[in-house]
Amino acid sequence: MPDITPATAFLEAEGLALQVGERWLCREFSLRLGAGECLVLLGPNGAGKTTLLHTFAGLRAPTRGSVRLAGKPYASWRANEVARFRGLLAQQQPDHFSSSALETVLIGRHPHLGRWGWEGAGDEAVAREALRDVGLAGMERRDILSLSGGERQRVAIAALLAQSPRLYLLDEPTNHLDLHYQIAMLELIKGHTRKGCSAVMVLHDINLAARYADHVILLDGRGGVVAGTCAAVLREDCLSQAFGHPLRRHVVDGCAVFVPQ
Amino acid sequence: MIAPTAPGRRRAFGVIVALALAGVAALVLALASGELDIPAARVIAALFGSAQGMDADVVRQLRLPRAVAVFACGGLLAMAGALMQVLLRNPLADPYVLGISGGAAVGALAAMLAGLAPLLVDGAAMVGALAAMLMVFGLAHGDGSWTQTRLLLTGVIVASGCGAVVTLMLAMAPDTRVHSMLFWLMGDASSARRPWPALVVLAVGVVVALPFARDLNVLARGETVARSLGVRVTRLRALVYLLASVLTGVSVTLVGSVGFVGLIVPHLVRFAIGNDQRVLLPAAMLAGGLLLLLADTAARTVMAPVQLPVGVLTALIGVPVFLFLLSRHRR
């Protein structure tokens, strides 16, 4: 594990550009995410939010530029140390085999165990607490094949919590969740950033982004990137242009709210 | 069942011990049964003592090599099936789905058609299995990507191509050879005389697979999840594919395309102890050996002196047991 000082950036990107096939998803931009900060990726379908998030996670190399995790490029990290420092909530894939909710959450402890290690009482306690945090206490023995989409999503979030990373990377964490749990899960992540972790989230809801983001990266799907603080990016003109639909900004109870026209 | 927690783990180890004991009992039964009924006490005396006589020779020289080879092959098939199901993330996968047995069948039947000696038939089966494995691996891996769908499709297509060649050879074969060729295809342990190759490969398979068993648990959750948790997915998949192919190839070479063991046994074991590969792989190995040994004992004795193809018996035993457990299994 690297030394983390208050000045260490958890995630840095320099001159980052991504190309898939012939298409540029984003042209060169730079980014620095420190402890306690939350970054939201916004953009229309197919703009490359997931690809960018996976690049931040070190799962794919950038076309140009570099990504550094806690000051070190991914190439100089050991695989299980990376997995202890940053965790990824991937988009839900269908499950094919029965497994209890607790067993599924314990998967998150994988990078904390040695090759021959077995999950101990400590790991089990972490997993049970994670299930409690996502509102699934008492569901430990339920088969994941019998869960609803929203419950399955919360099990996946619990597995990420059990991984206990410093940097949370979340691909549409609010997917399949009802309104109550959308807010509850984002508050849960926010709680971890207040304790010194940081988070990067792909969201579809501009208003949730406005509520939880410190920084926003807006992809327009044509290679354009607007990156900056929440106030600098979440503007009527930028958003309307990126989403290809006119939006109006209103202020309700002191919060910015964007309404499609 | 929650295998990673302490109570789940205790239960899983209990199941493994019970399967091992049942395996020993099945071995004694297999050695005692046959045209010549030999009491269990004489079997044990022949194995561990210095018993002399025809019955001791039958046990030591005829039944023991076959029983051990059959047990090992059942273990190979069940383990290969469990590995393939994780590799392809598909509960319907079995050791033969990627064309290994098809390739082996083409090799073996071609050798039989040419009238080669049994040892050369075995060799040709192994060559065919390896050729199919390399072909599927090369084609599916061609562009560097490794998707489950591409691998599965390539394997299924190669398998069906092999099936067509096998049918062609059966159609061309003289009547005198068709019977033995059909027996080979159905799975036939009557010529299994050398237990050592299967036992050695089985031991190597366990030693290679178990250090990666928890990685396989993660891989079963999907590629992105596995990579994000630090599993080197490409390397792991190649390893699992090669291992499962070699296990399957050795088994097919020795006992032919015995069906159902590789598909059903991993599921049976999952019903009992869950899908933790650290306990599933050894338990499936023991259960596969047990099932195939019981099936082979039945194949030798039920209609004696006629020997039935063991592959038919595995299906006849395995299918009702599986359906019964499936209907009782509640989430």
Give the gist of this structure:
The complex is a heterodimer of chains A (261) and B (331). Chain A is of the alpha/beta class and 261 residues long.
Average of the residue pLDDT scores of chain B: 88
CATH superfamily of chain B: ABC transporter involved in vitamin B12 uptake, BtuC
Q: How far apart, in Å, are the first and last alpha carbons of chain A?
A: 49 Å
Class based on secondary structure composition and strand pairing of chain B: mainly alpha
CATH architectural category of chain A = 3-Layer(aba) Sandwich
CATH class of chain B: Mainly Alpha
Q: Separation of termini of chain B?
A: 10 Å
Number of helices of chain B: 14
- The overall pLDDT average of chain A reads 93
Question: Which two chains have the most extensive interface, and how many residues on each?
Answer: A-B, 41 and 33 residues
Largest sheet of chain A: 6 strands, mixed
Low-confidence stretches of chain A are none
CATH topology category name of chain A: Rossmann fold
Shape of chain B: globular
CATH fold naming of chain B = ABC transporter involved in vitamin B12 uptake, BtuC
Number of strands of chain B: 0
Question: Could you give the order of the helices and strands of chain A?
Answer: EEEHEEHEHHHEHEHEEHHEE
Give the overall shape of chain A, derived from the CA principal axes.
Answer: globular
Helix proportion range of chain B: over 70%
Strand content of chain B: under 5%
Determine the oligomeric state from the structure.
Answer: heterodimer
Report on the structure:
The complex is a heterodimer of chains A (261) and B (331). By secondary structure, chain A is of the alpha/beta class. In chain A, 32% of the residues lie in helices and 28% in strands. In chain A, a hairpin with a 5-residue loop joins strand 9 and strand 10. In chain A, helix 4 (121-133) packs across helix 5. Chain A is globular and about 50 Å long. Chain A starts with 8 loop residues before the first strand and ends with a strand. The model of chain A has no long low-confidence stretch (mean pLDDT 93). Chain B is mostly helical. Chain B has helices spanning 6-32, 40-48, 54-87, 100-113, 118-140, 148-172, 175-186, 196-209, 213-219, 223-228, 233-255, 261-273, 277-301, 310-328. The model of chain B has no long low-confidence stretch (mean pLDDT 88). Chain A binds chain B through residues 54, 57, 59, 79-80, 82-83, 87-88, 90-91, 93, 95-100, 102-104, 106-108, 110-111, 113, 115-119, 121, 124, 140-143, 145-146, 163, and chain B through 1-6, 9, 85, 89-91, 211, 214-215, 217-218, 220-222, 224-225, 227-232, 270, 274-276, 278, 331.
